[in-house]
Structure formats: structure tokens, C-alpha cells
Amino acid sequence: MSYMLYLRRSLLRRPQRHLSLFVILTCAFILPLLISICRDSSAYGTEQMLLNLSKGSAFQISNADEADTAFFEGINGMSAPRYENGVICLSILSDEEWQDFWAFENYSEKVSDRIEKSGKANLIVTAFEYGIAHGIPDGSSDQSGLLILNLFIILLSALTVGSAYKSHIRRFSSDMGVLRSMGAENRQIFTIFIAEFLVVFAASALAAVLISAGVMKLLFATYLEVRDSEGLSWMIFKINPWNTALHIAAFFVVLLAVIVRALIKSSRESTVSAIRGDIQELEMKKNPPKLKFKATPEKSLASLWLSRTNKTHSSCLWVAVPIMTVFLFLFSYLSLDVAFISESPEYELMFSKNARYAGGFTQEDIDFVRSLPQVDTVNCRRDAAREIFNPEAGGLLIDVMDIKLTSPELHRETEELLLEHFPGMEYSIHNYQAVAEEGQELSTGIYLMLMFIFSAMFIFALIIVRMKLRDYIDDSRKTIKTLWTVGASSGAIMSSFTRQSAVSSVAAAAVSAVLSLALLLLATIPAAVKPSLDLPLAAVYISISVLTVAAFILPVRRAVRGILSKRSREA
Amino acid sequence: MNTVEVRNLSKVFVQGDTEIRAVDGVSFDIAEGEMLAITGQSGSGKTTLLNLIGGIEEATEGEIFIDGTDITVADEKELALLRRQKIGYVFQDFNLIPILTVEENIIMPLLLDSKKPDRKRLIEIAKFLGIENRLDHLPSQLSGGQKQRAAIARALINNPSIILADEPTGNLDRKMADEIMRLLIELNKQGITILLVTHEERYGDMCARKIVMSDGKVV
After folding, report:
1. Do the Cβ atoms of B80 and A175 come within 8 Å?
2. ipTM of the predicted structure?
3. C-alpha closest to that of B100 among B85, B86, B117, B88
4. Does A136 lie in the same domain as A253?
5. In 3D, which of B189, B199, B97, B187 has the Cα closest to residue B150?
6. Closest Cα partner for A67 from A46, A88, A52?
7. Residues A64, A123: contact at Cβ < 8 Å?
8. Domain identity same for A91 and A139
9. A518 touches chain B (CB under 8 A)
10. Is residue A484 part of a domain?
11. Which of A153, A410, A412, B123 could be joined to A374 by an S-S link, Cβ 3.0–4.6 Å?
12. Domain boundary among A261, A277, A293
């Protein structure tokens, strides 16, 4: 048996406090973990998309027959040709050569020579760089952007949790004082509270990982998974344990620093003050501002509380404003994203033909498309573009038919019909309508994910604000009782406390809304998108503001009512 | 031999621009096995003086020797050790840890000192104080008198050189207060040095020696 007995008893006999911390920490972990899972899934999806596209090869020769493989046998330094559904794949055996620009160019020339020697003009070659063929995306700006965002969220969450932890430690200052009077060293008190933190942290991290992974797996299985799509980035559910561990470790380090700082601060407090545990007395300003008389006693009292005991309310603002701002920003930004990807296209299909290698569309091709009964209008154009996967290989020249259908639902059957009539690899169809439909399906998943994020963040903020405000009212117990004894009505006391909560809550709601809109404007500048505050978005802003106001006022009303009714019963 | 020696001790609190000398140049000794009462009106500096001797408040000036060690120059670790091994504290409002049972509260100083609790001694103390049937109870399940007995048991468990009792009868009714005083006198008869702070002259008169404080000074 050791002095850690205190911790065991504290966990078992004051479970509500520790449970609140557990919920706060679990909710705090959820958003960074969700972003981490999205990052991992996006990275894995991109890898799979590149592997699917390149089939792991350096060169793909399209429009080929199996017999054409003979033309590509025995190229020095290259693999034997592999035939797959009209495509011949070739790889460079040496990774170093594949990654070397000039060696790669040399192999490209060798493949082109073989095509020329084959005399088959319809063979089209596509080259893939080493990274693409191995599923390594070229630029990873999105990924690093998300990582920076996540580290910022972790820092913010950890500081917010740290503020809750400070309140938690404050509640135990009396026990700390008593332990010190019995001869406990600061080291022993630190050990107790850091061990408590480790227990709660471990349980919360585990719970958060299980909840986030479970919810995201479900959302991916139902809505969020994107694969075999031409128009959208691939997203396939994946959790990288190292990334998850990194996020938890970052959280741990920041939080531990905040907690150690709070413990050091509390250790500097005199033992006598700590035993007395009168937190308001300890935190009172030495030279308080003078009492200002207002029109009613309630207003005078509210102004008095606000001028003398406003630390709790300002710390509640520091908790609520960043959390609500981050959520409102995420919501409005993702709403814009959803609106963009699920917007109905002007033309349902884009039908194209490689003009450089295959000579472009003939009048006969165009007439055939126009003659289809489901085709409403066809817009023909010639487009020059760089090859996406082999930018060094020179420009592409393509003939394009933008097709508008009489009814958007006919896009699949029209696509199949066109592919059947134009079977060669020089033809390509981009189905805008299918992408928009995928986007619409994806949007349900995104909104469900936002609801989940909001629940976690709101519970996170709610419990911290509730904990702080209830502690504040608890610390004001003596004041409330005295006021009641000297004749203040219950209504006046209640109103004086709810009034200052109302001021803080309106400030929290307003500042969060303004900051999130400012962030949205900043974030949309690079994409040249103009955000607009439409009715559903405005409804979300108003609902969240109402919830924020309720989160500030209800705990105060309940706690004050509890003290007043107890006082009435005693009287 | 003196258990406690206080030399020219002062404690100044600063509130805004005002300096309050809660203890002002106090000197006295407490011999081993003595029971000394410090009395005086509210605000006279009695509790501050006791807290200074107990090492839970820092002196502004002067020296305090406990068993020959000057605690005014001791660091946090030495002070903690002193409180664990040489001082037993009894507070007016008991200061039992609410989540620990009576037994756990009593043995906590031993656990902080990495000592294995001696069950026989625990029962012996509990029997002497009449709380042997309350050891498994939480403080919230005890009466005021029982809480104070538990606090005295906690102060005794480490065989301290001195027991510092700050208004130990202040929160009790007359009958219970008399009972606690009887127990303290009994402990003193067994050889334990006791420093009692009280504002009640009656209890001060029960002690072998009494000093009276006023405005931070011994009068």
C-alpha cells in the first residue's frame, strides 16, 4: 500500500469528475483522429488510383493485340511485355534508371522505335514516371496542409483540455493542502495527479481511436468511399497506425506540459490557502473595481460579479469560441466543397478523341452522335492539353464533343452506347453526370461526418463550460447564501448570475460566427470561389448560436436553483 | 530539553499598500512533554503562529527550532519530512480527506513516509480515541466529535515530537469539546508535547502553561 491509495480512491469515489475528464479528452481526440483517418484514406486512395492507372508499369501501349507483344520483346533493361485487355505493359528493371530523367527518355525512344518498326499507327504509348507507377503521388500539398491543420487543432484542443484540467486540479487544492500538511512532498502530489492524467489519457485515447475508426469505417462503407472514379480523388478507408500514434503523442506532449505547469502553479500556493480552498478568495483581484449602481439590484449585482469574478466567464469564452469557430468554418467550407462536386453539369458527357495520334473526329463520328435520340446538343471543339501523367512527353491534342442529353438519367446508357460504337483506346469518355451523382452521394456522408464532428466538439465544449460554470457557482455558494440571508429575492440572485452568462454566451456566438466567416473568406481566396450565406447555412449558424447560449445559461440556472432550493429547505 | 524554540518570530502579510504584522517579534520555548496553550482574541495571530511552527506558512523574520532543527531555513523537502515525522496537525475543521475512510485517513502520513502501517498500533490509537468501530466509515458518515478524534488519530500515527492543535474544539458542541480536551490532556500525560491554540480561556486554563497573544505579540 502506498500514497497512491489516494488516486485509487479518487478514481472510485469521485467518478463523476474523472468521467467528465474522460469524455472531454475523448471528444478532443476525435476531430484530429478523423482528419488523420481522412488523410490516410486519401493517401491510400491516391496510391491505389495511381497503381490502377499505371498498372505498375513504365509504359503502356494501347490499342494492341496479344500478338503485338512480339514487337516489344528483348528491349535491353526492360521487362518482358505483359498483355492485359488491349494494353501492353513494360517496366524498367533498374529503379535508378527509371528515376533518372535522361535514362527514362532513352527508354521512351526505344519504345517509340519499336512502335515505328511495328508499322502499326494505331498503337498509342503512355509513359509513367517511377513515382506514379509505384503509387507515390507527385505533389502532396493537400496532405501536408491537412497535417498542419491537424497540428493546429491538436494544439488548440490540448490548450482547451488544459484549461479544463486546471479547473479540475483547482477542485482538489484542498486535498493537496491537507496532504501537504501531513508531510506530502510536491513530488508525491505531482506523481498522484500525473498518474491520474495518464490513466484518463490512456482510456480516452483508446476510446477515441475505437469510436473514430468505427464511425469512419461505417461512413466509408456507406457513403464516403470513392474508387474507380475519373472525376474525383480516390478515398479508400485506411488507418496508418504510425500517423494515429503521432497525433496522440503530439496531444500527450502538449497536454502534459500544460498540466505540469498547472501543478507547479498550485504547488507555489500556500498550504494554508490551499487547505481553506476558497478559490474565489484566492483568485480575487487585490484592488477590485468599485461597485456601480444600476437601475435594478439584479443589474447592479451582475455588473459586480462581472467586474470581480469574471475569470471563469472569460475562460469559458476561450474554450467555446475556438471550438465553435473551427466547427463553423469546417461546416461552411465543406458545404461549399459539396456544392461544387455535386453541382449539376452543363454537359452530361465529354467524349474525346486523341487528335495527335489518331486524327480527331470525322464528320461521320459527329453525325452519329448527333443522331442519337437521347442527345440534345453537341458542342465540338479541339483542345490542347499537357499529358497529366507524363508532362515531359509534349502536348496532347484532342477533339472534344460536349454532349447534353435530353434527360440526365440517360448518361450511363449513352456512355455504354458510345463505347460500343467507338471501341478504340484513342476514344475517351468523361461522365460529368456520374461524377455529380457520386458527389451527391458523397455529400450525405460528408454531412453525416460533420454531424458526428459537431456532436463530439459540442459535447467537448459543453462539458468544459458546464464544469467551469458549475464550479464557479459552487464557489459562489457562500455569496448566494449570504445574499439570500440579507434579503435578496431568489429571482434577483438568479437573474444576476444568468445575466452575466447571457452576455458571455452572446459574445461567444457572435465572435465564433464572425471569425469562421472570415476564415472561410481567407480559405476560398486561392480557389477564387465566392462564398455565399444561403438559408441552410444561416440556419446552421443560428442553431449553433442558440445551442451556445443554452450551454452557457442552463448550467448556471440549474446550479443556482440547486443552492437556492437547498437554502429554502434549510430555512 | 526544549522541543520547540521560537526566537524573535515575525510574519508580515501585505495587502495592497498595507502591511499587516500578524506575528510580531514573538519568542518562547516549549519543553518536551509540555502542554502549552496560546490564547487570545480572534485576529490576534494565534493560528498564524501555529502555522509558522508547523512549517505550512513561511516566516518573515526570526527562527523556529524543532528538536534542534531550524525550520525557517529548511527547503520544501526538509519541511515535508519534518511534518511527516515530527509534527502532528489537528485542525478546527478536521480536514479529513473526504474520499478516504477513517482508517485510510489515519494511515496516510505513514504511506507518504513509505512506511508500512502497523495495524496493532492503529487499533490501539483508535481504541484510545473511541473510534475503533468507525475505521471503515467515510468522514461524511461521522459526527463532528468522531471526525476530530479521527484527525487526532492521524496526528498521532507517526509518533510525532509535538501535536499542533488549532482550535480543535471550535466546531464542536460543549460536551464534545470537553471530551476532545480530556483526550488531549490524557495524551499529554502519556508524554506527548502539545501546543494548543484556543480562544476559550477555559481550555487554556486546563493546560500546564498559557501564553496570551494580542495584535501579533505575546502579552
Report:
1. no
2. 0.88
3. B117
4. yes
5. B97
6. A88
7. yes
8. no
9. no
10. no
11. A410
12. A277
Structural domains counted in chain A: 3
Please tell me the distance from the alpha carbon of residue B27 to that of residue B171, in angstroms, as a whole number.
Answer: 29
- Listed residues A402, A435, A468: the one ending a domain: A435
Chain B CB contacts of A270 below 8 Å = 56-58
Query: Are residues A227 and A90 part of one domain?
Result: no
* Rounded-to-10 torsion of CA A315, A316, A322, A328: -170
Chain B residues close to A190, C-beta within 8 Å: none
Nearby residues of B119 by Cβ (< 8 Å), 6 or more positions away: none
- Could you say which DSSP state residue A223 is in? I
**Nearest in space to B13 (alpha carbons), one of B46, B58, B68, B56:** B58
Q: Are A94 and A135 found together in one domain?
A: no
Q: What are the pLDDT digits (tens) for A339-389? A: 877 788 888 899 888 776 667 788 888 888 888 888 898 888 877 664 544
The answer to whether the CB atoms of A179 and B76 lie below 8 A apart is: no
Enter the pTM of the model: 0.80
Burial of residue B217 (CB within 10 Å: 0-12, 13-18, 19+) is middle
User: Which strands, in side-by-side order, build the sheet including B193-197?
Assistant: B87-90, B162-166, B193-197, B35-40, B209-214, B217-218
Nearest chain A Cα to B76, which residue? A185
Asked, for residue A189, whether it belongs to a domain, the answer is yes
The reply to whether A136 and A86 lie within a common domain is no
Mean pLDDT taken over chain B? 91
Q: For the domain covering B34-58+73-218, report its CATH number.
A: 3.40.50.300
Say which CATH number the domain at A381 has: 3.30.70
* A-chain residues near B91 (CB < 8 A): 181, 275
**Cβ <8 Å between A182 and B91:** no
Report the pLDDT value the prediction gives residue A388, as an integer from 0 to 100. 47
Instruction: Specify burial of residue A476 (Cβ count, 10 A radius: 0-12, 13-18, 19+).
Output: buried
- Asked if the structure places residue A511 within a domain, the reply is no
A153 and A212 housed in the same domain: yes
- With 70 as the cut, is the pLDDT of residue B133 above it? yes
Contact between A374 and A384 under an 8 Å Cβ cutoff? The reply is no
In this complex, how many residue pairs, one in chain A and one in chain B, have their CB atoms less than 8 Å apart? 85
Nearest CA in chain A to B138: A13
| Residues sharing a CB contact under 8 Å with residue A253, sequence separation 6 or more, in sequence order | none
B215 vs A229, which has greater pLDDT? B215
Looking at chain A from residue 352 to 411, which residues have their Cβ under 8 Å from any Cβ of chain B? none
* Interface contact B51, partner A, CB < 8 A: yes
Give the best residue of A13, A173, A181 to mutate against chain B (max B CB count within 10 A). A181
Considering only CB atoms, which chain B residues are within 8 Å of A184? 80, 84, 112
Cβ contact A244:A36 at 8 Å: yes
Cell numbers linked to A207: 476510446
Cβ-in-10-Å burial (0-12, 13-18, 19+) of A96 comes to exposed
Q: Residue holding cell 517496366?
A: A91
Residue A314 lies in a domain: no
A253 pLDDT higher than 90: yes
Same domain, A95 and A181: no
Q: Is some CB atom of chain A closer than 8 A to the CB atom of B109? A: yes
All cell numbers assigned to A181: 500538511
Residue A85, C-alpha cell as written in the block? 485487355
Structural domain including A402 reads: 349-435
Do A247 and A396 lie in one domain? The reply is: no
**Chain A contact set for B117 (CB, 8 A):** 1
pLDDT of A485 > 90? The answer is no
> What confidence tens digit (pLDDT) does each residue in A507-565 have?
999 999 999 999 988 888 877 777 777 788 889 889 989 999 999 999 999 999 999 88
